Amino acid sequence: MRGNKKSYRVTGFVLTFIMAVSLTAAGCSYEDSTVDSFVSKRRPKELDYWLLNNEELIFDLTTGYTGKDDPEPRPMDEEEFIETWKKLREDQEHEESDTSQTAEEADTADTADEADTGDTADEADTADTADEADTSDTSTQSEEEEKPEYPVINTYEEFLAEFHNAIRNVDDSCGFYTTELDNQTMLSWLQPAIDEIKSRDFLTNSGGDLDYFSVGIYNGEGVFTITWRRDKETILREREEADAEAQRVADMIGTGGSEYDIVYKVNQYLIDTDEYAPKDNSAPKGIPYKSHCAYAGLVSHEPCCEGYAFAAGLILEKLGVECMYECGDVIENDGSIGDGHAWNLVKVDGNWYQMDICWNDVCGRYDEENGCLTYFLVDDDFMSNTRVWERDKYPACDSGTY
Questions:
Q1: Both 302 and 387 in a single domain?
Q2: Cα–Cα distance, 371 to 187 (Å, whole number)
Q3: pLDDT, tens digit, for every residue of 59-91?
Q4: Are residues 59 and 103 in the same domain?
Q5: Contact at 8 Å (CB) between 38 and 254?
Q6: What residue numbers bound the domain in which 180 lies?
C-alpha cells in the first residue's frame, strides 16, 4: 500500500507540474499569438449608417462612457498666500540646512585628518578658512532670505514650463516672481496648460490625480499649489510600471508592419485587454481617480476614456507613430452638450485621423465583427456627429475615413 501511495503521489505531482507548465506556456504565448493574429481590415461602408441610426448605442456611449476630470482652480486670499509662502521658504531653508550640515561634517572630518598630521599652522589656516566660509555662508543665507531663488513667470510659456515640471515631479507647490501677472490671469491659463500637457505627455501628465490648483500673487511674489488626490510614491510607482508595460507591448507589436497595421494592433490590443472602469460613487462622476492615467489602460486594465487615450498614446509613441490626446464634450441624443470626453489623434501615412478606442471597445459589444472599427481612423466630419471640440487647438482631420 505504501508503495502504491508513493507512486500515486509521484504521478500526481508530475501531472500537476506538466499542467502548470502547459498553462504557463499557453498564457505566455496567448498575448503574442493574439497580437500576431490581428489581421488588419478596413471599416465597412455600412458601419456609419448603422452607428448614426442606433439611438440605443449613442445614448449608451454619451451617458455611460465619458468623464474627463480636471482640477478646480481657485485664487488665494492674502492670508493664505502669506502662510503658503512662509511654509515654502521654511521647507527650502530646511533643505539648505541639511546640505550645509553635510558640508560642515565633511569639513570637520578633513580638519581631524589634518590634526592627526600635527600641522598646527595648517589647522589654524583651516580654522580661519572655515571662519571665512561660515561668514560667507551667513552672508549668502542672509541674501537668500531677502530674495529666495525662484523662477520668474511673466508669460504663458513660462507658466507652462514650471507647471509641467511640478506635475512631472508631483510637487505640491512652486514659488515664483512676476512683474506682469495677477491671480485671475494665471488661473485662466490653468486649463489650456493642462490640455497642452496631456496632448503630448502620455505618461507624466496629471491624469485624474489633481484635485485643486491655487495661486496667490502679492507685490510681485507668487506661489501656486497643487492638491493631489493620491500620494506621491504611488503616482511615481504607477508611472514607472506603466512605462515598462507600454514598452513590453510595443516590443510585442513591433514596427515591422505599416503605420495602419501598427495602429490597428494597438486599438485591438487595448480593446481585448481592457474593460471600462467600474463605478466609484466616492469619485467625481463616479469614475475612479486612477482610471484617468496610462497605468489604468496598461496595468490595472480598468481605464476611463482618458486612460484608454493615454495608454494608446504611450504605446504608439514607443512605436514611432505620431499621436496626440484630444478632448471635448459629447453631444447627447437630444442635441444638448453632455460630459467631457477624451480620445486620440493619430498620424498615418502623412495624414491625421481621429480614433476613440474607448468607444470602439463599447461598440464591439453591439457589433462583434466590425464594432471595434466604429471610431477607428475617421475624419472630423464623422466625429462631429457625437462630440464637439476646440478645432483650432488640434490638427484638422480632413482626409476622409482611412
A1: yes
A2: 41
A3: 888 888 887 666 677 788 888 888 888 888 787
A4: no
A5: no
A6: 150-228
Residue 268 has pLDDT above 60, yes or no: yes
pLDDT for 270-324, tens place per residue?
A: 999 999 998 887 776 778 888 999 999 999 999 999 999 999 999 999 999 999 9
CA distance 357 to 289: 19
Domain count, the chain: 3
Residue 162 near residue 132 (C-beta atoms within 8 A): no
Residue 274: what residue type?
D
The set of cell numbers assigned to 325 is 490626446
Among 259, 270, 370, 263, CA closest to 34: 270
C-beta of residue 305 within 8 angstroms of C-beta of residue 66: yes
pLDDT tens figures, 4-50: 433 433 444 443 433 333 333 333 333 555 677 677 877 777 777 77
Cβ proximity of 389 and 326 under 8 Å: yes
Q: Stretch 134-163: mean pLDDT, rounded? A: 73
Q: Are 203 and 294 in contact (CB under 8 A)?
A: yes
260/276 same-domain check: yes
- pLDDT confidence of residue 33: 54
Cell of 274: 481592457
| Residue (of 309, 206, 325, 208) closest to 266 by Cα position | 309
- CB-based contact 375:363 (threshold 8 Å): yes
Q: Which residues contact 333 (CB under 8 A, 6 or more apart)?
A: 55, 58, 59, 62
Q: Which residues sit opposite 218 in a β-bridge?
A: 221
Specify if 328 maps to a domain. yes
What CATH number is associated with residue 169?
3.30.1370
173-177 and 221-228 strand pairing: antiparallel
Last-in-domain residue among 130, 146, 162: 146
pTM for the full predicted model? 0.77
Same domain, 50 and 101: no
Closest CA to 205 of 300, 306, 340, 284: 306
Long-range contacts of 135-140 (CB under 8 A, 24+ apart): 137/100
C-alpha cell at 146: 531677502
CATH number at residue 262: 3.10.620
Give me the sheet containing 376-378, strands edge to edge. 376-378, 351-355, 337-348, 323-331, 387-388
Q: Which of 94, 119, 146 is the last residue of a domain?
A: 146
CA dist 324 and 374 (Å) reads 19
